[in-house]
Design goal:
230 residues, elongated, disordered N terminus, alpha+beta, five-stranded mixed beta sheet
Length: 230
């Protein structure tokens, strides 16, 4: 039984894991734009001052396939203090699709393969939802610009894959993810919305609320009084 994500749920409009202990976001309403995740932590460490916008997705999820080009375009419009990261849903040690994403990361082929896998599953039918690593590797090797040997080596490299699979699984678990796509900002705020557009709009509101505060400009010293002429 898949214990992590339920693909039948798209929007977390009644998430039960709200926490009141953490500070509210100025100008926003808990339970409307976001739900606070108790004890939430970011998926990955970013430079100080940067805000992580994590999308938990699954290649086999049709909602994620539709959402993928939207969040990719949206990510390019974010302010400098925010960055989108993708987190694959993980269903086990040998989850072939989660491994595929981490192989993309390792071989720097996300721009080539991330959209291509969605297309192959949900549009062209070139790959089944239950594809194994061998099928995925063969398909990736046919995509122009992908080094097949390097991708397949990364796909089956347990030493590199297992820590990443564990980290992605634990992030989704502690964040209370129940469906895909899900957006978690700064590891603490599960974004709510009843449409794709609403999810992105509310995510931007939370990102803006977490923007670093600019230091007030120092006051200019008062001008010295002009000397009186004798």
């Amino acid at each position: 039984m898949r214990a992590l994500l339920l693909f039948i749920t798209l929007f977390l409009t009644s998430a039960p894991f709200a926490a009141q202990a953490q500070a509210k976001l100025a100008g926003l309403t808990e339970g409307v734009e976001y739900t606070t995740i108790e004890g939430g932590q970011p998926y990955r460490q970013l430079p100080p001052g940067m805000v992580e916008v994590a999308e938990v997705f699954a290649y086999t999820c049709p909602h994620c396939a539709h959402f993928a080009p939207m969040i990719e375009a949206w990510a390019k419009t974010l302010p400098p203090h925010a960055r989108v990261v993708y987190v694959p849903g993980v269903f086990g040690r040998d989850d072939a699709w989660a491994r595929a994403y981490f192989a993309e990361e390792a071989t720097k082929t996300i721009p080539l393969l991330h959209p291509s896998f969605f297309t192959a599953i949900h549009e062209s039918g070139e790959l089944p939802q239950n594809a194994g690593t061998a099928q995925i590797g063969q398909y990736a090797g046919r995509v122009r610009g992908v080094n097949a040997a390097a991708f397949n080596a990364a796909l089956t490299n347990d030493a590199a894959q297992l820590p990443k699979l564990r980290a992605a699984y634990e992030f989704a678990q502690r964040s209370g993810v129940e469906g895909t796509p899900s957006i978690i900002v700064a590891g603490r705020y599960m974004i709510r919305g009843n449409s794709y557009e609403a999810l992105l709009a509310n995510a931007r509101k939370v990102v803006n609320a977490l923007a670093p505060r600019r230091a007030a400009a120092p006051a200019r010293p008062a001008a010295a009084p002009a000397a009186k002429r004798p």
